[in-house]
Fold this protein.
Amino acid sequence: MSAATTRSRTPDRLCAEAVDLARAAAEEAAAPGVVGEHVSLVSEGDRVVTHFFECKEPGYRGWRWAVTVARASRAKVVTLDESVLLPGPDALLAPEWVPWSERLRPGDLGPGDLLPTEADDLRLEPGYSGEDAPPPNSVVTGTSPDLAERVEDEDAELTDRRPADTVPNSRGTIASLAEELGMRRARVLSRYGLHTAADRWDESFGAKTPMAQAAPAACVSCGFLVPVAGSLSQAFGICANEFSPADGRVVSLSYGCGGHSEAAVMPKPPPAAEPVLDSMATDDFPLHGDPSEDLGHA
Ligand code: SF4
């Protein structure tokens, strides 16, 4: 039978009565005046009892001072074991601590911040660094440098061409091919990384967004769509319409917005109306009227 099952659940009488001893210990540990009423006690085991006192500290609502007292077998003196501040069932607690790596959210990275990437980050996989280049004489690299030199010398003898005329040609090597494909980096995007990025972009600028649902046509037929290279080109492009909410963003080909290049063709200006007044002819307006007419009127 284990020791836990033999423990008494009935508090030891002498330990249960040692409330004053427990209170004195709590007051010694706490600031003056913050130990409140005796709340309860529990039996921790044979001759071991914990007394709980209300904590009156404003910032610790629902917390309790817990003072454990104990007594040796056949001894009548109760002694102090420990005192500590513990949260009660209704205590106000801080949110559970979350590691920074799980707390980080998109957009949290500011200027000057560094975000280390795990060595085994699933979004990345090794690129071609050149360290695992095929050894000399490998069929992959073709001719070894020594052999190439000898061939070059013999060729120069036969053709009167100087060996120095030959320019080393790096085209066709794995390194140059990797460079051309953008793979010559320590690590490149893995398939998993590519898929998660595509899902994310599709969520923000994909066919299911309200903007796309209300769009007159999809990005695939829009003149503002800039194509991207690689496998992503089958599903995504970049929007280059400054009036679109997706300007400068990766958009799904099935996304769309009201700024679609062919959505609304501007109407032609109406032809000018015929002039109502003939402003091409001249009318006579004498500066001074006929003087005889003036006399006659008088
Ligand atoms: S303007 Fe609108 S429809 Fe055209 S590419 Fe940008 S988001 Fe797509």
